[in-house]
Amino acid sequence: MRPIPYLRPFMVLAMVATIVSAFGLAPVQNTYAGSHKIVFTSDFNSLATGVLAVGTPVEVAVGSVVASAATVEVAATTESRGKAIVVSGAGAADLHFSTYPSTLPQVGNNRRYDLVVRARLTAPVATVAGSSLFLATIDGARYEIVSFGADGTLAREGVSLGLAYTPESPVEVDVRLDFKNGRMALNLSTAVDSVALARIAIPGNFSPDSIGALVIAAGGASGRYSIDDVEVRVEQEKKKADPARVEFERPEYEVENDHGTAIVSLVLRLNSSRGMATNVFLTLNLDETQLDMLDLSFLSGIGYIKERGHNQIVIGIGENNRFRQEHFQIKIKFKVQAHGNDEHRFDLRYRLNYNDSDGHHEMAPAPIIVIVPVIVSSAPTTPATSVPTDTLPISVTLPLQRLPITHIDVRFRTNWDRDGGLRIYGLPLTEPFSTTNGISVQYFERARFEYHPENAGSPYVILLGRLGVELGQVQPPVAPPTSTLDLAWYFAPTGHTITPRLRNYWRNQSGLATFGYPIGEASTDSTGTVVQYFERARLEYHPEYANTENEVLIGLLGAERLEQLVGPR
Predict the structure, then answer these.
(1) What's the rounded Cα separation, in Å, for the pair 257 and 277?
(2) Distances (CA, A) of 144 to 137, 214, 355, 360
């Protein structure tokens, strides 16, 4: 899931009513773009790097920044898209709105108007209570929006919100203050999860007649806390968004006999054809079944496992749990814990929860009736064919020679081009050749392409070799992590967790299809390089290339495997 930038340009379209200050000041003219007026916006990239003098305003695109307590600085950080405002120690920065020290602009009628705040926050550690984000009145009173809690979760007014944050990873903040009804809605998103709170009461002394700034304060905490990509605007009431239309397609399942054990493969499909659904979670209840989950694959759409227990599985759907005019499809494999010589029947229950413009919704379709016929044990069948690993039916010499792209087999070229080309797979190292079991293969620097005629007519006719496994990098499974954040990246089929440094890259490059499951835990060498093996690849995080396209590189497993096979002659 990529972070969604909140900073957007707006055009000034019209002049509207004159606003009278609650402090008896002269009327203030306010220019609105359609139904809103921006009162603060900046990504801080235009500011000079360095420490800000306390009490000295620094102008930004709209509004100004004032260090109200040391230490505040403008700095380039690894987690920001450029420069950011950074507070540390007892430092605090006031982001004064363009109307300061006067009041927020208001519309001269009885229509509802909101104050919308959007920003990106980061924290250095997840174990020490730290920076807080406030709204501030012109006379200095503060109203807390969110803070970094000492237990590794985001908090508000000392109460955990249950959303874990990762050190040096952005937290997207989206706040809407509904002054007409005296309440606030708060939405927070991290790279893997989100939380939404509504109907938070706004104190009576916080109103358009009093609010003048946004404040980020470290409050004496250790570490450096940053804020960037800030936008604050006043919005007039607008038309209510269309409610979401989310529907399940008819589920499908099949039962296989795996040497006397029944394996159920279930496919669930979900469609969104209208509106926006948020906080979308699919829950499968296993408490009344005799099914053990073996594998879960995301066939289309974006999703992740939020929670996995003995009794249920909770799956988050959509980028940042937002689902809009999309198609989502998952495939789940279960092993049936059934004995005896009778047919078995199971009711698999599931439900979907989401929010939209009409509020909260829960869909609980009729249970999926799974009928498992009598399973008769049979002798083990011949294993599936595999690529021979002892000899190569072609002449290969060391050192390996890289071949031109024109030497890529026509059967593999489409997949090579579509899925990343040179950057993901590298150049070919061999011509295509056929193995004794009828599989055609071609080695590349980082991969081995395989053509499986037995899968003709299916998406699996072209497969990638499991080079990480063949090179002996499989490690014993480890226990699932206790953190909800990390549990979403734990893969039960191999018993390993993808390290945080590699998660976004793995997901953005089609994850399972390209690299496969992790087959060991990540390790870090003396240079800070983080390395983790997967079934089909070795991913490497290089800190020296941070924030560049080379931050994550792919190991040359194709070359390593080929050299292993060629060996001394």
Answers:
(1) 39
(2) 12, 10, 25, 26
The domain locations on the chain are 14-236, 245-372, 382-569
Q: Tell me the two tokens of residue 349.
A: 């229950």
Q: Of 512, 488, 518, which is closest to residue 193 (Cα–Cα)?
A: 488
| DSSP calls for 21-75 | -TTSPPPEEEEEBTTEEEEEEE-STTSPSEEPPBT--EE-SBSEEEEEES-EEEE
What is the pTM (predicted TM-score) of this model?
A: 0.40
What does the block give as tokens for 276?
Answer: 């926006």
Same fold, 14-236 and 245-372: no
Please say if the pLDDT value at position 209 is more than 90.
no
Residues 6+ apart with CB under 8 A from 250: none
Give me the residue label for tokens 């009344």: 288
CATH superfamily membership of 245-372:
ntegrin, alpha v. Chain A, domain 3 (2.60.40.1510)
Whole-angstrom distance, CA of residue 21 vs CA of residue 113: 16
**Tens digit of each residue's pLDDT (9 = 90 or more) over 339-351:** 555 566 777 888 9
In DSSP terms, 245 is beta-bridged to 274
Burial class (CB in 10 A: 0-12, 13-18, 19+), 150: middle
Residues 468 and 147: their CA atoms lie apart, in Å, by 42
Decide which of 3.40.50.1580, 2.60.120.200, 3.30.390.10, 2.40.50.140 is the CATH code for 14-236: 2.60.120.200
Quickly tell me which residue has 């360095």 as its tokens: 50
Q: Vertex 522, ends 478 and 497: CA angle to 5°? A: 45
- Residue 528's φ and ψ, nearest 5 degrees, are 90, 0
CA distance 455 to 98: 64
Residue 2 and residue 190 in contact, taking contact as beta carbons nearer than 8 Å? no
Nearest CA to 330 out of 293, 358, 366, 361 is that of: 293
Q: What is the pLDDT of residues 257-276, one digit of tens each?
A: 666 677 788 888 999 888 88
Q: Which residue has the tokens 């050192």?
A: 399
Alpha helices in 304-441 (DSSP H): 410-418, 421-425
